[in-house]
Amino acid sequence: MQIIGGVYRERCLHPGWDYIFGSGGRAAIAICEMGHDIHLHSYVNDDFKKYLEIESKFCSGKLTVNQHKTDEALEFNYTHGLANIIPPSSNKYNSEIFIQTESVLMFGMIECKTRTESVYAVYDPQNTFQTLSFRQTGSKAQHLALVLNEREAYALAKAECQNSIEDVIYNIVEKESAEVVVVKRGPKGALVYNDGKLSKIPLFLTEQVWKIGSGDCFSAHFALNWILLGKTAHESAYNASLATSYYCQTQCLPSKVNLNLYAPKPLIINSNKKCKVYLAAPIFTLAQLWIVEQVRNNLIEMGLEVFSPYHDVGLTNDKYYIYKEDILGLDNSDMVFAILDGLDSGTIFEIGFASAKGKKVIIYNENVDDKDLVMFFWGTYFHY
Q1: Cα(129)–Cα(381) distance, rounded to whole angstroms?
Q2: What digits encode the pLDDT tens for the residues 148-171?
Q3: C-alpha 288: how far from chain center
Q4: Using alpha carbons only, what angle is made at residue 107 by residues 101 and 112, rounded to the nearest 5 degrees?
Q5: Where on the phi/psi map is residue 17: left (φ > 0), alpha (ψ -120 to 50), or beta?
Q6: How far apart are CA 91 and CA 47, in angstroms?
């Protein structure tokens, strides 16, 4: 199978991460890891090419890099694994990458346009500077599957947020003449359109979530299952979700053996109830406010309703007003996400109040010693 996609360096400050993958590189290694040969077409410098080739030596499939020469070394830099970033820009004007082939997984790229004429195509436009539809790239395919996140889906459909995701999908199917449309919806799992019907795909429960590259892993495993293994769109998306769960849990791309031994529980979200989270944290320094802002944005992106005292009550000298509004916010919340670093007295009070009410408390802690956490270890409602 052919893959068109970018090869970029990825750096993350916390937790530490410094690898060369990008969408094209990661998808190529992911499918090689499953025992299939891949031809990767990308603008890639000699160092990045050598890195991928060495990485592929540990896979059971063979990787061939069809190198479009460049001296650029583009980097994605993240402060943390859930950070939203601005993609790097290319200083080069590169010719498009175009291939005619039987089957292809094509990603949108930063440094050039991509185009294909194929029998089977899976297209993931990526969140680059613009979201181009498959048809806008000038591409053609007899059998086309689109793998999108919700933001990309609304962008391609040019739909307002009040439109239902189902209407957006049908709009894309008509515009793109797509046989399959998969829309990834974060904690809600995914929706798959095929043969006039929509089906739901669950996500799976993991102890941790490594988000960087998770979308690339999903697209790779969907293409593997749908094109190379001949599975249905629903089966392909289900298997892709399972493989992505393994990647999010381990930060490693799975092999066949890994997936055969991997049996996580499907996680079904109650879409009729929107969970409300109270964000307990100190808010007195720039560093404290920065992490509160990051956590709040990430929780909202996950579809949760967030009550943040800093944002929803504000700063005032009226201490009784702050107390009254914070308690009301706690009472009306389903659970608490608490940032314990610094052992702020207000945060500790909010944790105690919530636990006394029987509410679940999730504690984020990096530097508080275990001896100061004795009262938090034994409660039924505490999770770390």
Answers
A1: 43
A2: 999 999 988 887 666 899 999 999
A3: 25
A4: 95
A5: beta
A6: 19
Q: Which of 236, 207, 76 is nearest to 146 (CA)?
A: 236
Residue closest to 65 by CA, chosen among 134, 6, 151, 152? 6
First-to-last alpha carbon distance for the chain, in angstroms, is 42
Domains of the chain, first to last: 2-267 (3.40.1190.20), 276-383 (3.40.50.450)
Q: Assess whether pLDDT exceeds 50 at residue 30.
A: yes
pLDDT of residue 128 exceeding 60? no
The token duo for 139 is 């591409």
Q: Where are the beta strands (DSSP E) in the chain?
A: 2-4, 9-14, 17-20, 38-43, 63-68, 75-80, 97-107, 114-124, 140-149, 180-184, 190-194, 197-201, 203-204, 266-267, 276-280, 305-307, 335-339, 360-364, 382-383
Q: Which residues contact 118 (CB under 8 A, 6 or more apart)?
A: 2, 99, 100, 101, 102, 103, 104, 139, 140, 141, 142
Q: Give the closest residue to 149 by CA, choosing from 128, 118, 174.
A: 128
How many residues can be counted in the chain?
384
pLDDT band at residue 372, thresholds of 50, 70 and 90? confident
Q: Report the side by side order of strands in the sheet with 360-364.
A: 305-307, 276-280, 335-339, 360-364, 382-383
Q: Angle at Cα 82 formed by Cα 187 and Cα 163, nearest 5°?
A: 45
Q: How far apart are CA 312 and CA 332, in angstroms?
A: 13
Instruction: Name which of 304, 303, 305, 306 is nearest 150 in CA terms.
Output: 303
Question: Do the beta carbons of residue 352 and residue 327 sit within 8 Å?
Answer: no
Condensed to tens digits (0 to 9), the pLDDT of residues 66-107 reads 999 999 999 999 999 998 888 888 888 889 999 999 999 999
Residue 208 has what DSSP assignment? Answer: -
Cβ within 8 Å of residue 148, ≥6 positions away: 124, 125, 156, 172, 181, 182, 183, 184
Quick count: other Cβ atoms within 10 Å of Cβ 69? 10
Residue 251 structure tokens:
């930060």
Q: What is the mean pLDDT of residues 96-120?
A: 96
